[in-house]
């Protein structure tokens, strides 16, 4: 009881009531600072391989010598196939696989996205492991067109050479699938989804035929992206690409195995995110962290391996970079060593981490160390939400004009020898009118599905125009809602609305953080100013001529300039953190045409199953609209 009395007296203390905004700000700063602290000396852990069976680089590789001639012949053949029609090329590739004793098949697939067709045919062959019981398999991939869209002559030739070479070995305890998808994103996506379903998927937007040949559960996949021209090209480094769809990552053991084999066994420098000369200093680790954060939050495929991650198949892409003195045989031996390491596994990779942030080829932080950053930022939103909730219960109804203000009733609380005198209004919570705020919140959230639907269904040439229209409506919507809502809601209801919105946002982002940390963190940071959205003072500039009843302007104490000084920066910041503005800014930063970005986003949502659009339009956008409505409602409130 003593505590209660003390709390009751304390809660009207002005210090305590002012605390929540500072607490929110502290959370946001702490969350951002957390990430900056991660790359500091002593925080990252050195990578290590925890799965003993994988034995990276412990096996002698034999790929080389006479295989070089075979490779050169295949490269010539691949070049010739590239000059023929698609149909002949598919048949040609299938024939090469069959000649080498593989069971081969083709899989046509197509998607309809934004009025455009994504179509192609995957070719694949199966090497049945002599010691395999058809329950497990691994995949070796070289897409016909690499991630940059170039024909992957050397990569395809290398994989064909490897298929011939691996077929002759008798050590395989797993089947090997050699996959040559048409492109690096949608081909693997179609193949792996068909692998995990029994029938063809035919809907109005997709036609993915089933696979005639299948093996056991896929244990791992290694893709080669070697875009050397038809006359070959030596390379300098191997970039290990690891990000999967929606920011899923392969088991850290597989990634370490690749880096280990390249660096220690083959003597090829390996990089991540193409960061050259990583010196393992703070700045380089921070660069790596930032690049990883951006790639993961976008959530799109980064190579042929990405499609495998949602099916819990560990996969990576080895992409050659630069002009150096390593030749295709080195890359072939790296792939051979990878395949043999996976072959050694007795079970699915499970020992090491699936949730990690890499700071360099040899250092990482695990989920326990980085997750708090996103959770603290989301916590900052929740703190404000709770503060708003308490306040909305406290807001005393303003005395109606003309009515005499009644002196406040006081309540005396006694507890032993402590006596507290508290105004009675402090002890009762006013009944909150929650229906309208809840209705508005649900309405705005449902509204977010309109841009989501439009941007994923409108035909490609109309996408930019649609986006500009959505942007315009987005900017006007808070203004519109504010003018209409301000007349019908009390300040208390607005606080309840803001409280609900921030509470939902905070909870969604904390959940999202465990699935896609980077996306949750970035959206959390962009939404954090919404914690501080409060009704702005009335502005003459923004007054619409309301109703017919002329109101005599009330003399105000603070000059217009002072009110503008508060409102203008707030409104500008508010516009700057809107989803359309951020999308446009990012687009300009990366120097891509808007039409390209929008089409990629639509393809990502429709054909790759990327959720980023959903998070933008159904989580971030509604929170932003509600924040603006609360802010602008002050401007339109009848004086
Ligand atoms: C789906 O693709 C297959 C193979 O290309 C084709 O035979 C079939 O007609 C297609 N189905 C539809 C509904 O387009
Ligand atoms: C036909 C084609 O796109 N060839 C490309 C293969 O990759 C090399 C290296 O990236 C390019 O220079 C070629 O133009």
From TrEMBL:
InterPro entries listed in its UniProt record:
Gaa1
**Which Gene Ontology BP annotations are present?**
attachment of GPI anchor to protein
- Transmembrane regions: 20-40, 370-390, 434-454, 466-482, 502-532, 564-590
Keyword match Manganese: no
Provide GO CC annotations from the record: GPI-anchor transamidase complex
Please give the name of this protein: Gaa1-like protein
Which domain of life does the protein's organism represent? Eukaryota
**Swiss-Prot/TrEMBL keywords:** Membrane, Transmembrane, Transmembrane helix
Q: Which Pfam families match?
A: Gaa1
The record lists the organism as Neohortaea acidophila
